[in-house]
Amino acid sequence: MRDAQQLLADAKVIAVVGASRDPRKPAHTVPLQMQRYGWRIIPVNPHVDELFGEKVYRSVGEIPFPVDLVNVFRPAEDAVEVVREAVAAGAPAVWLQLDIVSPEARRIATEAGIDYVEDRCLAVERAVGNLSKL
After folding, report:
1. Cα 90 off chain centre by
2. Which of the ends of the chain has fewer CB neighbours closer than 10 A, N or C?
3. Interval 4-39: pLDDT, tens
């Protein structure tokens, strides 16, 4: 299993479940920052059509191309279903944002053999590792 730094270093395309159009929320600022550092961000949100200059998908399963990482900005109780979707879609890794922890989601990811990170922030890990895709 890859650690958080290795996941980010390997990823090029990140699906962000719960991406927000509200610029005051971390679910907007974190994906936007990752995009500015060169990752392709694919927003997943059932209530928006476009974010960050990208088409928004209603679910991970609707994304018509592979993603390297599914990043989750949803409450822990929603994470289980998101991880199931990620596994079904063939995503190799799932990342639950800061303060999101789900033993059940971890179990599902582990049993499926995909990488799993929880309770960590993409933007913080990017900065700590001085990572960029540019």
Report:
1. 14
2. C
3. 999 999 999 999 999 999 999 999 999 999 999 999
Domain 4-128 matching CATH 3.40.1160.10: the answer reads no
- Rounded to 10 deg, the angle between the 76-89 and 103-112 helix axes is 10
pTM: 0.96
Structural domain spans, the chain: 4-128
Which run of H or E residues covers position 117?
Answer: strand 115-117
Q: How does residue 134 score in pLDDT terms, banded at 50, 70 and 90?
A: confident
Closest residue by Cα to residue 37 from 49, 29, 48: 29
List C-alpha distances in Å: 129 to 32, 58, 94, 109: 18, 31, 19, 24
Cα Rg of the chain, angstroms: 13
Largest CA distance in the chain: 36
Phi, psi (rounded to 5 degrees) for 125: -65, -35
